[in-house]
Structure formats: C-alpha cells, structure tokens
Specification:
GO molecular function: rRNA (cytosine-2'-O-)-methyltransferase activity
InterPro entries: 4pyrrol_Mease (IPR000878), 4pyrrol_Methylase_sf (IPR035996), 4pyrrole_Mease_sub1 (IPR014777), 4pyrrole_Mease_sub2 (IPR014776), rRNA_ssu_MeTfrase_I (IPR008189), RsmI_HTH (IPR053910)
Structural class: alpha/beta
CATH superfamily of the largest domain: Tetrapyrrole methylase, N-terminal domain
EC number: 2.1.1.198
Organism: Paracoccus shanxieyensis
Largest sheet: 5 strands, parallel
CATH architecture of the largest domain: 3-Layer(aba) Sandwich
Helix content: 40-55%
Radius of gyration: 25 Å
Strand content: 15-25%
CATH class of the largest domain: Alpha Beta
Strand order of the largest sheet: 3-2-4-1-5
Keywords: Cytoplasm, Methyltransferase, rRNA processing, S-adenosyl-L-methionine, Transferase
Length: 297
C-alpha cells in the first residue's frame, strides 16, 4: 500500500460517521475505480454491515480506496442465495444497524437482484436510501448521440432466439431510445434478429465504458451487424436503439384505431389518444372520430 492509500485509510478510520439505520444502495464504478462518490466511500467505510452481489469485487474496491473491513460482517447477496441471505440483512436492519449494499458494478437494482431486497425492506417499514453514482445505462445514453428526453431500459435480452424475438417485439414500437444490456458474445444474434424487422434502426453499441479500451460504434443495425465478428465482442456491452422509423399511416389504420377506442371512451379522449399515437393533428383525428361515431348511431 502506497503513502496516499495509507493516508486515505487513516483519514477514513478517523472520520467515519455512522450512517443512519437503513439499507444504503451504493452505486459502484462500472470501469474506472475513481468513478465513485465521496458519499459512497463514507458509507462503505462506516456502515455496520456490508452486503454485495460479489463480495470479492467489493473487497477489491475497499482495498483500492484504503477502506478497512475492521471485522465488519460482509454478506453475499445474489440471485442464487437471495432467499437465504435476505433474512440476515432484514434482521440487521431491525436491530437498528446500517447496511450498505453494492452490486457488481453500477447502480444497484438496475438488472440485479437488489430490487427484491429493497422491496422487502420497504415492506417491513424500514428505510431505503440511494447513493447515486455510476450507471452503465445512463453512461451509454450520454455518449450515444440518441435522443435522451425519453428512454426505456429493457434489461438483458433472452438467451433463446424465439424469446429474444418476442422481447424485441415488446419494445420495437416504443417512441423512446431503448437501452439494453447484452452479452458480448450475443450482440451479433441480437442485431440479426432486429434486422429481420427493422434493419435501418439507428443503433449504438458501447463497449467497455469508462475503461481504457472504451469503444462506441454508431450506425444502423445493418451497418453494425457487418462490423461484428462471428465470435462476438469482448468486454461489457450496452446497446441502444433510436426511435422507430416513421411509418406511413393510412385512413384505414386511423379508423381501426379509433373504432377500438370509441366503445370505451368519449370521442374527444379517443381522438386525443390516436392523434398522440400516430403524431397527427388532433383536430383532424377528432373530425374522423365524430364521423365514425355518427355513422354508428
């Protein structure tokens, strides 16, 4: 340990103010170890109990920043042991202890098992606190160049091809930038499936964000598919998709959409929903809705 780490360790051990009795969800670096907040270091240093998706990763992070374990309990909490580990964490909170939980990398509860823990903590009337910080999804959105006013995070794609195609169908028409996590070995299969329905979809692949060999590829799904080797990529991958391509909407489409709504709601509301869905003037859709309503009478 160098002099700087020794000094930091000494400072932390002296200024460790105990956090409130709560589950503290600590965002941790997705690449560069320096991408951690001062507040996160304070809580990791002073919490009564530490929990992590992978305790080895957390120990390594503590070592890098010179934070001593000081005999504190370190609980592994992940998909395979969540039901067994959760009672111990809840018991610590009921005893008035503070618990810091860190996922492997990034913000807890984003595509990791921590959400069930937070749900149960809240369900028992206990306190949950968030310590914001690194997020692969938001880092990818930031560098993508795609619209950021509305975005949809859809997690990891399914392994099986059929399930993956249904997963794509569930979000392909969303008027939002879509953010997905993907195995580097399966990026090619994901793009192949997307190209079957929308090859010109604006696509961005972010690889190894915040790390030394960070790479961002931009183009259409078809363009990027041609750049991906058969064996896939290496490293951590975030894939983003732009808004769907504008589609030509015919009068039959509008009449069908309105007919499905007019039996359920007033003309004005149905017209507003269809106009928003197709991006058309509300006045024109309202006139068509009135025509359809009168024709039914």
């Amino acid at each position: 340990m160098n002099e700087m780490q020794e000094a930091r360790k000494l400072a932390l051990s002296i200024s460790a103010d105990r956090p409130e009795a709560a589950l503290h969800l600590v965002a941790t670096p997705i690449g560069s170890a320096r991408d951690i907040t001062l507040r996160a270091l304070d809580v990791l240093n002073a919490a009564d109990v530490l929990a992590a998706e992978d305790t080895r990763n957390l120990r390594h992070l503590l070592d890098i920043h010179g934070i001593p374990l000081r005999g504190r309990r370190l609980i592994a909490y992940h998909d395979h042991n969540a039901d067994r580990a959760r009672p111990a964490i809840l018991a610590a909170l009921h005893q008035g202890l503070s618990v810091a939980y860190a996922s492997d990398a990034g913000t807890p509860l984003v595509a990791d098992p921590g959400y069930r823990l937070a749900r149960d903590v809240i369900g028992e009337g206990l306190v949950v606190r968030a310590l914001p910080g690194p997020s692969a999804a938001l880092a990818g959105l930031s560098v993508s160049g795609l619209p950021s006013d509305r975005f949809l995070f859809v997690g990891f794609s399914p392994n099986a091809a059929g399930a993956r195609k249904r997963w794509i169908a569930s979000w392909i028409e969303a008027e939002a930038t879509v953010i997905a996590f993907e195995s580097p070995r399966r990026v090619r299969q994901l793009l192949e499936n997307l190209c079957e329905v929308e090859p010109n979809r604006a696509t961005v692949i972010c690889r190894e964000l915040t790390k030394k060999f960070e790479e961002v590829l931009r183009g259409t799904a078809q363009d990027l598919l041609a750049q991906i080797p058969d064996e896939g990529l290496r490293g951590e991958v975030v894939v983003l998709f732009g808004h769907p391509e504008p589609k030509q909407v015919g009068e039959d489409d509008l009449r069908g959409a309105l007919a499905a709504l007019l039996d359920q709601m007033p003309v004005k509301e149905a017209a507003a929903q269809v106009a928003a869905r197709f991006g058309l003037p509300r006045r024109d859709i309202y006139a068509l809705a009135v025509e359809l309503k009168e024709a039914k009478q």
